[in-house]
Design brief:
The complex is a heterodimer of chains A (353) and B (263). Chain A is mostly helical and 353 residues long. Helix content of chain A is 80%, strand content 0%. Chain A contains 14 helices and no strands. The longest helix of chain A has 38 residues, at 10-47. Chain A is globular, with a radius of gyration of 22 Å. Chain B has a single domain, classed as Rossmann fold, CATH 3.40.50.300. Chain B contains ten helices and ten strands. In chain B, the strands form two sheets. A six-stranded mixed beta sheet of chain B has the order 6-7-8-3-9-10, with helices on both faces. Chain B has a four-stranded antiparallel beta sheet with strand order 2-1-4-5. The chains are: A mainly alpha (353), B alpha/beta (263). Chain A binds chain B through residues 8-9, 12-13, 16-17, 20, 91-93, 229, 232, 235-236, 238-243, 245-250, 293-294, and chain B through 50, 53, 55, 75-80, 82-84, 86, 89-95, 98-100, 103-104, 106-107, 111, 117, 120-121, 123-125, 127-128, 133, 136, 159.
Amino acid sequence: MLCTSRRLPCPHMVVLVQDTQKTQFTQKVLTLLPCLLLCLAITTNMLVGPSSDDTTVQSILFDLRLQRTLAAALAGAALASAGVLIQGLFRNVLASPSVIGVTAGAMLGGQTILLAGLFCAGGWLGGPQLGLSTELLVPLGCVGGGLLTLFALLSIAGRVGTITILLVGVMLTALLGALGALATSLALSGWELARTMLAFTLGGVDATGSKEVQMAAPLIVCALVAGWVWSRNLDIMVVGEEEAAALGCDIKRTRFWCVVYAALLCAGAVSLAGGLSFVGLVIPHILRLVVGSKHRPLFFQSALGGAAFVVACDVACRSIPTDTTLPLGVLTALFGAPFLIVLLVRQHREMTL
Amino acid sequence: MSILHAEHISIAKGGDGQQPYIMPCSLTLEQATCLCLLGPNGAGKSTLIKGLLGLYPLLTGTIQIEGHDLAERSLRERARIMAYVPQKSGLTFPLLVEEVVAQGRYPHMAPWDKLTTEDYTIIENSLQACDITNLRKRPFTALSSGEQQRVLIARALTTQAKIIILDEPAAGLDVRHCLGIVQVLKRLCEQGRTVIAAMHDLELTATLADSVCLLKGGACVGLGSATETLQADSLSHLYETDICRRESWSFTENAFQDIREQH
């Protein structure tokens, strides 16, 4: 017995354990990086802008900034972590939450509510009578639109393979995008409405109030926690469905819940900040290069990194002096796309060297 | 008691298919033996393998592992009993070799568990058994197909399954790598694991197999010990080509010795 235990590959095992400790150490350092960036971005966002000597005015300013910072952080975290779920599920690092159609559905839901305001001018779909204000109805429309799209997606593609879900999602995105464009063109009849609609479509947290944050925050936080729990199964799902099933992973349940949580995250993000492009694609992609492909750490880091990125973009939005407000969605894409291109070129160069 | 006993099983291909692709057949396998499945392309080797693994539904019949019905077990329990080595992995993410091998611990872990020292010992032993300790830090996607096959076998070992089922493990490999794989599989049998492998190469099959199952058009046309089934007339009938055994370029018993020394 002693003899066999001596023959156990102890030296190698120690190496592996040491390795793991080393990677764990690097992991910890890297964990701090998005976290630090997030703190930095939040602090900057709270401080940038006009200030006043009057403490009451100052506290109101702080309050307003806190709300938009929270909204931006939640939307960024939601989109980036939804990106991790979708990329892992479809085994494609270039997939993004918008491919399942839920983003387009949530946008259309919000746009429909805005448009309905035109036809029921002053009535807002009976909102005031029910005690619901505009600022609550639009996010509700987003979540409703997102969930309806998700329901359509699952009922069309729920019983078939992952690739079909992807195709149906792309088709739904095209269909709902066209309807969204129709809604925008209908909105052109009223100047004020057209402005609101455009601002919503381009994405931003200027109009996001405390009620919207209070409503979306529980949804996003719950979906984040649940998504994090399920994301470990994606480590197994990346090998392909049959292999994953042979390794004991329940692929149907994993697929279902990952799509559901990604959709909830998308709908929540759209309800807070409208259409923010590129966050769900770029952030997981960048962090995968840093953190590695394990989905739980990647999910956690992406949530932090996404939040930091969108808050930082909001800082830029507010500090770049222009005549009009810069749309947040434009900035996320402006910063995100070139950054990803540089990373991809560098990665390619390293691989060929 | 036999480790695997399949009674009168017929298997449908794909998820909802009702048409049996594998006609009713029965198999019995003793522990620490190797069963090879032979047959032309499309004969149903892969379908039978996936049926045994529970990935394709059984239309009739039952599969018993050590006397217990497989249908009563959960996916995770099955994965702890039977491990699957695909012909080619669908993995496209650049996971490291040791991460791929560590996936074999998944059926043993609860959602909150982390890999323990014991898990690392098991992973380490599997890496050694497949002679891939030196590849552990390489990305799986950067390996040659022979090396990938070894990694997949190591992952199957990490599940500690008693039965290891391989779909054409030697497909597309050169002579030396084929021999390497066969050597690993023979060693597994010696250590008490049971191996089921779909094969194309007759010479390798003769080296590896204790028993052989001949499949043609979804039906089992021959089942028995390697010497009984690997006969010129039955193989000619199986492949509808004249096959005979004659002296030709081939590897010798010394080849195994050479490979062992190189490692």
